[in-house]
Structure formats: C-alpha cells, structure tokens
Amino acid sequence: MDTNKRFLVGVYDDDDEVLAAVKSVRASGIKVHDVYTPFPVHGLDKAIGHPRTRIPVAAFMFGALGLTCMFLLTLYTMALDWPMNIGGKDFYALPDFIPVMFEFTVLFTAFGMVFTFFISNGLWWGVKPVIFDLRATDDKFVVAIDTGANRKTEAEIEKALRDTGATEVNIKEVVEEAA
Amino acid sequence: MAEHNHHFDPAEMEEWYDFTSSSKRKLIIGMLAGLAILLIGAFMVSKGIGIGIEHAHEHAGHGHEGHEHGLPGWAKRVVANLWMNAEFFTGISVIGMFFVCIQYLSWAGWSSILKRVPEAFPAFLPISGGILIILYFAFGQELFHWRHEGVMDPESEHYDAIIAGKSWYLNNAFFIVRTVLYIGLWYGLWVVLRNLSKQEDAVGGTEWWYKMKNLARVFILVFAVTSSTSAWDWAMSIDTHWFSTMFGWYHFASWHVTGLAVTTLAVISLKEKGYLRWVNENHLHDLGKFMFAFSIFWTYVWFAQFLLIYYANMPEETIYFRERFSGYGGIYKAPFFINLLLGFLFPFLWFMTRDAKRNQTFLKVGASVIIIGHYFDFYQMMMPGLVGANAGFGLIEWGTTLFFASAFIYVISAQLTKASIVAKNHPMLEEAVHHDI
Hints:
Chain A contains five helices and four strands; from the N terminus they run E-H-E-H-H-H-E-H-E. Chain A is α+β, with helices and mostly antiparallel strands.
C-alpha cells in the first residue's frame, strides 16, 4: 500500500535567514523534517535538532571485527592448520601479524562506515530521491516540514515560515512505496 | 553572518598574561626543591640507601659494553638524568616552533587564536641546549661510548673497529659543531619568527603572515634534517654499535606528541586562569585530535622500527631490545611496557570518542598520561646505554624532572608576558573565533 506524505516547503534566500528561521520555527513547536542548502551552513545540523550520528560506534565495531577476523585467520593458517617454522620463531609470532591485523582493521572500518552511511541514509541503486525544490542546488535554502508529523495546522505552519522570511511556501506530496 | 553579527575588533582580542609573583615563587621553590631532591637522592644512592626503585647493588656489570669508566654509578646516574631531561625538554621546546610553522604552512586558521602559546616554548632552548652542551663538555666520555679512551685508536687495547668506522661522523669536533648548530638554528629562526609576530601585533596587515610563512618553510627544511640527525647524536649514539634508520622519526614522533600534550595542558591552564576567552571546545577538540593522531603515529613508527628488527633477528640489531627486555636483570622491562601502555593503548582508547576530545578534564588527564608515557620512552631510550645496571627510579629521577619542569614553566610563563597571548592582528583570527566543528 502506498502512503502519501504531505510537506510544506519554505523557500529562503539567505543562509543566515534560514538558520534563524529553523531555530524560531522549532522554538514554536514545529518539527522540521530537513533543510536543503546549496552549501554547508555552520550550526544548521544542531539547529534542526537531528540526533547525533552513531556512525563512530559502527566504525569501532567494524574495526574490532576486522581485527578479530585477521587475528583468527592468521592464527588458523599459520599456527593451527599448517604450522610453519619461519626464522625459528614461535608458530604464532604475534608481531609478524600485527601489520595485517592493522590493515584489516582500517579496511573494515572504512568500508563498513561507507556502507553503513549509504544504508542508513537510504542511498542505494535505483532509489529515486525526493527533491523538494530543485533550486536548493542553486541559490535557495529550502526547509521541508512534514505536516503529518506536526500537530499544528498547515495554516499555522505556513504562517511560521512566512513570518521568518520565507519568500514562498509550496506544498509537496511525496508518494512512498510501501516496503 | 547574522549568527555571528557581532563587530569583530582586533583590539578587543588583546590579552596580556600576568606572571604573578606567587607563581614565580612557587616555580622557584619547585626548581630549588628539585635540585635538593636530586642532591639528597644522589647522596643516598652513593651511600647505598634506597628510596624508590634502586638496582645499583644487584647486577653490576651485566651484559653491556664491558668496561667501567670514571665516575661511580650514582654520579653516572645523575649525569644521565640531566642529559635525558635536557634532551626531552629541548624537544618540547623546539616542537613549539614546529607546531607554529606547520600552522603557517597549512594555512590553518583555527590555531591562530592559541598559537602564541606554543610560540613561547622555544624560549627554553638556550637553557636546555646550554645544559646539553655543558654536560657534553664535562661528561662527554661518560655519556658516549664513542668518546671512550682508545676506541678509535688501532694501537689501544680498547680499539673497536666498528666504532672507529663511524669516526668521520662521531668525533668530538663535528659533534660539538652539530649540537651548537641545531640549537643555534632552531633558536635563531625562532627569534626571527617571534619578532615578526610581535611586529604584526604592532603594525597589522597581512605581509607579516607571508613573511612568517616563508620563515616556516626554511625552518621545516632545517628541521626535516636536524630532527633526525639530532636524534642520532643525542640519543642513538649512546648505543654506539647499534643503529636504526627509523630512529630519527621515532624519536621525533615522541617529541612531537609530547609537545602537543604540553601545548594542550598550557592552553587549558591559561583558560582556567581566565585567559584565552575565545578558545572553546572546538579548538580543544582539534588539539585532542592532534594528540590522538600523533599517539598513533608514534606507535606506528615505534612498531615499524621494532618489527623489522624482530623479524630480521640480526644479533647486532636485536641487542637493543634484548637489553630492554631482559638485560641488566630485566630492570628496563617496566619502563619499556609503561611507555607502550601510556604512549599508545591509553591515549588510543581515551581519546577515541568525540566527547572525550572536547572535555577539559579528559584532555588534561590524557595529555598528562601522554607526557608521562613519553618520559618513559626517553628513559628506556637512554638509560640502558648511559647507566646500564645502575639505573633506578627514585629521588634522583623525581628531583631532576621537577627541576626541569619548573624551569620550563618559569621560562615559558616569562616569555608569554612579552606579547599579547592572542596574536590580535593575525589575519585569520576571525576565522578562529568562529571555528565550529
């Protein structure tokens, strides 16, 4: 079943304006879905109030996984399955295997973070991006507000956007295909 | 920027550090107490009374180079501690200059707000460098195997062909020239940089920034060579037979991360005294990242040196780690592993999260641990070759370190009063004020 989502899209002309607008709109109790800007605006991520990313936790887990995998692989191949005498050292001469354990920690962390990032942002092949206003890639700053997620009426939200300097307020219907 | 729409006025950035007479008194007491503890410690060790960890009586003459020279064990230990601390603090001082130059070369804006702090560090160079030179003249033969009587003389019974083969580099005159050159170049270039920096305060404009950047180019070129060669001279040549092509980098990495930790501690302590108003958790976060990253860099270089020696397993190379693992009855095993734990494992886990790098208390603890860890790096780098079985960790070590630390803080504080703590006309200062990560 498809669900419709209805967004109010406020369009602003200036990065400082949009930052102040997001703060004041949120202060009046309206939830902001997201803000789209042509360039990064300092402090905007905090102003929107998105929770902090947990990707560093994922990074640590992937790193630990890579370390463990290589530890077990070197242990199995070099000491258990086919022990080899190299330079008269112990079969499991740990320092020799630290470089490969290090490299796989880095590799797993890097790839793990990239894939976690893509998946958690819903970016995979064939996805059609929701574009609230194409001019957000040019010179406009766009605030999207999900009307369904807010208790306030559309008129109230529109007024809040206009009062904070939005030059236009448009309506955008998004059809989300049921997963 | 509506958010930051306050009027930015360089004149308002000016802050003058007040080196109060009570802190002066405390630091002078620290220096005197350090000297007193050193002397008491030396006296007690010479009489065979131990406080702390003393090994002097246990394993006389085990392993290392063989011949006994001149001074008694306790006196050697005093000289060795002075040398080690002078070398350690020389490093911290010159890293102040290195840090500032790196900031100029990388067009860094964020650090312009705190760059005056590391900029003050090289003021200690004439003192620590002077101590190095005096110690070399007075006790060169005690410190360095290659200065021993007859090692270069084919007629002598002490003749050592391997050391004699290095005589073109390791000889008295060339060593003195090099040491004077290192200290002179580092200090001289710093004096020029410091004057340009003060002129920038007085006159303003961007030309000073470009001049300092050009000077930074020169210093980085000089330091690229001298950071390695000074490590060979002052640290590696103690174990004269042994050499490692990785040693210069390893030694520099240890200096560098210690210098960054000292910078962080100095910035935080100034902040706690009410200075550096515009330094916030974003700037501290960057310093935290520096410490985190360069702790790992140090480990990387340390391990690169260790692994090749371990893997190749050549006796003339493995002797270095043999001495530290099991030589002299294993007395260097503790500092060796304390160094690894405090230099790598602790900072690696401690500074891993973002919050830890933005919290002053976390930063202070982490920076202190890094400094202690790298103190033991230099301890285990030099002591086996300098004193061998006569090493210990007691009043002599505490006293020497207290003396050097107090003297360092005194000289740096005095230097900080000579210019505004914030370089008010730095062209990137406004960027630093708005730094947000």
